[in-house]
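For the sake of clarity, the format in which proteins appear in this thesis is described at this point. The fold follows as a row of integers, each naming the local backbone shape at the matching residue. One such record is shown here in full, so that the layout can be seen directly:
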Amino acid sequence: MTLVAILSGAGISTDSGIPDYRGPGGLWRRDPEAEKLVTYDYYMADPDIRRRAWQMRRDSPTWRARPNAAHRAVAELEKRPGFAVRVITQNVDGLHQVAGMPDRKVLELHGTSRSVVCTGCHLRSSMEDALARVEAGEEDPSCLACGGILKSATVMFGQRLDPQVLSEAMAIAKASEIFVAVGTSLQVQPAASLAGIAAEHGARLSIVNADPTPYDELADELIREPIGTALPKLLAALRGPSGG
């Protein structure tokens, strides 16, 4: 059984219509103020920031997005005998699961935009229900259980990653025989360090990304082609006649 770890970043979802953050057309470049909407301290302190954040969530392209060929290729590899596939994703869009990856085999480092969490009592509920309340006229819906401030179940700027999720991700990186970093700049720590950890523990490291990354010199394979064609081709080669 070959353990294949996929570390995915925003670039894997751009073909699904979800813009990345730091690329030429990325959200932060187009609207630097948008970063405040996902910064914990600003969000908690300013009701106006929260109202704008709820509008951003309501209008998010995530709700129209469908998995693309790259997401589907990962899910297809997971179904093949001889491969254990684990996805470690920096994305919050849930498209790996929509494509068919079992939820338990996807580690969401930065949480998920498909749920909301109360900052007071920590109760989780569905984003769909919260957005229905926004549509009905609540500009800043509060927790129905305790009245606390609700936020998406994502890791905002200024928040720590879940230590258990990060610990699991590191264990997978260390144990992986093949590690593919796809659509990530490998600049945001600690997620980026997973590529280095995998390489140090003997994994074959492939980096599929349009731009150079700080970990390129550790890679066995650098692919600059479009992700929607490059990743399916790479993963198909793993399943080839040699059996991996």
User: Anything to note?
Assistant: The chain has two domains: 1-18+68-110+160-244, 30-64+113-154. The chain has ten helices and nine strands.
